[in-house]
Amino acid sequence: MKSKSAWFALLRDFNFNLKPSLISVRADVLRHFGVLRNRNVGAPKKLPENFDKFFLFDRYYSLRWDLTRSINLDFNAINNARVDEPYGRLDTKEKLDSVKRNFWKGGRNTHYHHDISLGYTVPTAKIPLLDWTQVRANYTVKYDWLAGSLLARELGNTLFTGQTRNATADLDFDRLYNKWRFLQAVNSDQPPPPKPQVPKDTTAKRKRAPGEPIYISPVPKFFLRMLTSLKRIGIQYTEDMGTLLPGYMDSTRVLGMNPRSGNPGWKYAFGYQPDTTDINTLAAKGILSRDSLFNALIQQRYSQTINVTAR
Predict the structure, then answer these.
(1) Judging by DSSP bridges, how do beta strands 108-122 and 157-172 pair with one another?
(2) Structural contact between residues 79 and 143, judged by C-beta atoms closer than 8 angstroms
(3) pLDDT in tens, the chain (311 residues)
């Protein structure tokens, strides 16, 4: 758009990025192997070896996409996995092949976490009547899947899904006041103009020159400054909620979900908060533990905060 008018800035500066700003994938592999054999003092027979070993395979994913100048998307995920090994030394082909298979499968997931943040800055700066305001909204998702113990698989895993909604507004009244010359004069320390020479024609009214500063006498200026003493207001609204689901029986493969079974559902991966009906539906599908020893409670939280500052 060729027009340079401030009223067309919203359309003139519109853009859309077709590719992400950042894509990052990282993998950390750590294998530890230790052997301890105690001495059998006074006897020829050797004591058995004790092994201390683990094989960790962690993956990290990051994505940042500035869809427009006002809309930003951030995604970060961590997948912790353990490559299971047979007991003892890897001294046979069968044991080595077993470890290789487990490694190329990505290991056995023990923990998955991702957070998604979507932010939108309302383009008030592009609107002349509202350019003294700044408004931004954010939606953040936190999702966790934690594997249960191999010794108590019937008690299931732990699932957490949470979301945070945040909106902030910054109102700069100083900038608003400066839109009018009269209010500029109220907040300025302009000295009184010099006394004009006595005109020849006392009946003629003096015309104000273009751009000539406005002078306000001290008493009215004092009261007007009190009325315009409010310079800035900041408003922040936050809504935070989360659900902890123990006894979750399914696994995680992609974005904390199992695509084969479709559990728990894409909406949970994006911060959905289940109600009693949703939880009963999960239980009816058999993906919540029914073991008689299971006694963990489903927990939900909700908080709402409003902060207003003025100066």
Answers:
(1) unpaired
(2) no
(3) 555 665 556 666 667 888 999 999 999 999 999 999 888 887 888 888 888 999 999 999 999 999 988 899 999 999 999 999 999 899 899 999 999 999 999 999 999 999 999 999 998 888 888 888 999 999 999 999 999 999 999 999 999 999 999 999 999 888 887 777 766 666 666 666 666 555 555 555 556 656 566 666 666 766 666 777 778 899 999 999 999 999 999 999 888 899 888 899 899 999 999 999 999 999 999 999 999 999 999 999 999 999 999 88
Kindly give, in sequence order, each residue whose CB lies less than 8 Å from that of residue 167, ignoring residues fewer than 6 positions away: 135, 136, 137, 138, 236, 237
With contact defined as beta carbons under 8 Å apart, do 223 and 150 qualify?
A: no
3-class state of residue 227 by DSSP:
helix
Strand partners, 34: 52
Picking from 243, 251, 249, 248, the residue whose alpha carbon sits closest to that of residue 298 is 243
Which sequence spans correspond to the domains of the chain? Answer: 1-113, 132-182+222-311, 183-221
> Among candidates 94, 64, 96, which has minimal Cα distance to 77?
64
Q: Note the pTM of the prediction, 2 decimals.
A: 0.81
